[in-house]
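Workshop exercise sheet. Pairs work together: one partner reads the sequence aloud, the other fills in the structure field after running the prediction. Swap roles for the next sheet.
Pair: D.N. / O.F.
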Amino acid sequence: MAVHPIDLAIIAAYFLIVIGIGVWVTRQTKSGDDLFLAGRTLGVGVIGFSLFASNISAQTLIGLAGDAYKNGIAVSAYEWMAALILVFTAIFVLPFFMRTKISTVPEFMARRFDKRVRVYLSLITILLSIVIDTAGGLYAGALVLDRLFYPGAGGDHLYPFVIGLALFAGIYTAAGGLKAVVLTDVLQAVILIVGSAALAFIVFGKFDFSWAKATAALPEGHLKLIKPIDDPGLPWPGLIVGVPLLGFYYWTMNQYIIQRALGAKNLDAARRGAMLGGALKLLPLFIMVLPAAFAFSLLPDIGNADQVFPTLVTDLLPVGLTGLVLAGLIAAIMSSVDSTLNSASTLVTLDFIKPRKPDLTPTQTAKIGRICTFGFMAVAAAWAPQIANFPGLWNYIQATFAYVTTPLVGVFLVGLFWAGAHARAGFWALVVGHTTAAILFVLGPVLGVISIHFTIMAGILAAYSAIVLVVLSHVMPKVAPNPDAELFTWPPDRESADMRPGETIWSDYRLQAAGVVLGVAVMLAVFW
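Structure field:
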């Protein structure tokens, strides 16, 4: 199926708008603080929509659709669970981040533990951002564009599309920084929601808008959020233990996501932005996951599940809507790639270069950040086509995160809620935790000696690392106490609960948090 000229015009219009935003923001981006944190001026709406758009990336659209097609809607747990995690983060973590004016999460870990932990976390975050997030986004986008422009070619044109996407995202990210990223994210979030909703409407229309017809030919349990313990996709213990831990890293410790909150103008904006992002995370089940689950009946002969989403677009959508959804897909690609490039350059500049050269001017800092952005863009573009050798995009992302990130989560949470965790123990707990994780990864996914689902393994590794930290904190001699440690350990300073002048009760983040939790509860009740 060739792409219609009208669809191409819609896609071109989107590119022109993004370029316009990039040019406008570049003129205002003078310093490193502007480039990395948007001058700490972000408001509620920008934060919320940017959180949603940065997460709902091309690999999410394709990976979620592929897994929903094969295993049912239980995979949506990664989406609605994020809403609960954002509530937790807003209440328990953001007060520390905003009060101390940190620029990166590794900086937080340095001031809670020591510089070694900062470097350790920063290196791992950069690696994951480039090899998993950026490369995954480029691969997913190239996969879809190859399907659209060269149907039947079998992915022979991945490299040109990867290079083109990387160049476009890299240029406007390096030029405009975080502000350009989040402003285009708002546009991208709107396009993603409208385009995905249109596709969901058309898919459901194929069944005459009858729930009975849509579900008649689906396998048993295909529309269940809670799966049995032996389910290969997402067993219920993994849902309870592993998914929240993976989500905590992603939404709280992952620089490219939490950078939106760090760029907020104040704590209230950061919290309310997180609540808006959490509310938007309730949408993917209905506009992205269910249509792919219903596609099991419409498209029973798809061999590669990662092709479900692009096939739905090319086979079902009319001219015009195809262009809108393609623009949404390209928006998703740009959103994930630009975010990870900006965060990786932020980490290198602020965690490695700036501490060694504290006299750098704001202009010099921004220049270094831009150079890093282009360097990471090249690395991600070179690696992206290799992802085709892995068994499914979603498993590539989630399994890797499970083994790498959960030791970090265990140490972070213990350090946040227990003042007794000291610096030396924190560093060695990470070393022991990741050494164990590497051994288990070889015994599990590589050799198949251990057959424990990665979500359950995530819980095991986080608990193990937390226990190691507690034990080492008791047996290892303490180093000189960190004078700032009390600023990074629960509880934070007590805040006033009074509303500000002109605000209503609906502006209270606590009421908004209750609404998000209620929304998740209703979804669980309906699709249990």
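Discussion prompt: The chain has 21 helices and no strands. What would you look at next?
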